Amino acid sequence: MDVNAPEWKCQGLWPCYNPAQTFANPFFTTNAMPHEFLSDFLSKLQDAGELIRIAPTVETALEVAAITDRACRQTDGGPALLFENPKGSSIPILTNLLGSRRRLCLALGIDSLDQLIEKMERMLRPESGGWLEALKLAPSMAGLSKFTPRVIKTAVCQQVVKLGRDVNLWDLPIPRCWPEEANPAITAGQVLTQDAATGERSVARFPVQVFSQQQLIPHWHRQHASHHQWLKAVREQRQLPIAVALGGDPLNILMTGAAQALTVPADTLLFGGFLRGTAIDLVRARSIELEVPAASEIVVEGYLDYAAPMVEAPPIASASGHYVPAEPLPVIQVTAITHRANPMLPAIVPGMPPTEESWIALAMERLSLAMVKATIPDIVDIHLPFAGASRNLLFVSLQKTYPSHARQVLSALWGSRLLGLNKVIVLVDADVDVQSEDDVWFAVGANVNPGRDLIVADGPTHMDDHTNEFRGTGQKLGIDATRKHPEEVHSRNWPNALTMPAELIAQLRLRAAELGIDHWQ
After folding, report:
1. Is the pTM here over 0.90, yes or no?
2. In what order do the strands lie in the sheet with 379-383?
């Protein structure tokens, strides 16, 4: 397919997308209401010039992903794409939904992602019950009870119900994104499980691969709570109900990652209610003992049988930009598919950054900053560069006050639940802007002695890091690029950096128009 062909250009696929128009759009306001349904959000994207509708027929195998990958590589992330006529299906496919800073802000109802930090800091403030209770998101806390998930009797996600022989996963236009993938995979679903004994609920997002007409394979990691719940179910010789929900409030995608950043376990759906400002409605699943998000577009229900043998799962694409090789995994037996009368199927196309995942990680970065500062207050800012695929690089600035302070912060970061899996962590001084990657690498070049400032440690790593001999464990690197105290460099004095006086810069800004240097403003 030639996406430069006239029939594509006449759809306005690329030329009509103008990111600059969005900043003046009235929808970007901190008073925005939550989006109950995915269609509500798409209407706002349409009005904001952030959505491109693709009317020609498109193959779900590779073509949807190739077009989306090209869109993601545009400046500022490109538009959201709605493929209205995927071949062989009447269900549209939605990609790159949150693939820009502007759409993230629109989904969150904020003007800047930095407002996420303020929002999280307010939540972590010990107004009642102490900061630990705040982190646990105890529903009894003042102000948090209104975010507790509530169960309703009927829901749009069950307008159409398919059970038994009517269940056919191939009826869903699930994209196959990359050539070496044997089967398509659900990439934008919230995977829900629940511990039968404790009632503890897990909501996570990881690829769920189609294996047959009525079978799925969960490509989870050992760090996921749902994986541990399955291991417990096997030990106790019982089935584990599982559901995959697609759509609803776009913040559902964010909540699954954000809750994992908390320093203690939390109810993900409760945390999602906090993010969107109101509780998430749930409805009883039709074939299993589980509650699912009521506003979903599509819900796939099933169970994991403790006695069923694992299968060799085919290779699958990862957000790391590489394939995950074949591995033994359990099989989900699908018992029902429910959906709206006219559903859409959201999909996140994995690939080499920048992708939609890169922008989602940016929001996670801002949420994580508030939470990590609650336990490591010396940290000033953090940044997950796109080039690190949200797992290989982390830049951290800190207010360094004593010798080896950077190493102490590094050790604390390696012990954190989410940021500790990053393969390379670079620490710089507070006056270095970690959002400017050139400034960070300048600090590395200027302040690092390789024999002294490179710290290698063994520990858990991201499961998709293919460089380790054993999956999920290996070596990580810390780079201390802070200016050194005398005790850290023996007897040598550390030179001062070249800086202009702040007063002089302020005076010149006032004279910018007179001097013809308006770009300083």
Report:
1. no
2. 379-383, 393-398, 424-429, 473-480, 454-460
Is there a single domain that holds both residue 182 and residue 322?
yes
- Measured between alpha carbons, how far is residue 340 from residues 159, 272, 292, 296, 310 in Å? 5, 22, 14, 8, 32
Handedness of CA 219, 251, 138, 371 (dihedral sign): positive
Tell me the pairing of strands 311-313 and 327-329.
antiparallel
Cβ neighbours of residue 95 closer than 8 Å, sequence gap 6 or more: 64, 68, 71, 80, 81, 83, 175, 346, 347, 348, 349, 356
Residue 275 to residue 268: CA distance in whole angstroms: 10
Q: How many CA atoms lie within 13 A of 127 on its CB side?
A: 12
184 with 222, same domain: the answer is yes
Of the three residues 294, 327, 347, the one that is the final residue of a domain is 347
Determine if the peptide bond prior to 354 is cis (ω within 30°).
yes
Residues 399 and 484 in one domain: yes
Q: pLDDT at position 38, please?
A: 96
Is residue 239 domain-shared with residue 331, that is, in the same domain? Answer: yes
Domain encompassing residue 94: 6-108
Kindly report, residue by residue over 470-501, the tens digit of the pLDDT: 888 999 999 999 999 888 876 778 888 898 99
Q: Is residue 123 part of a domain?
A: no
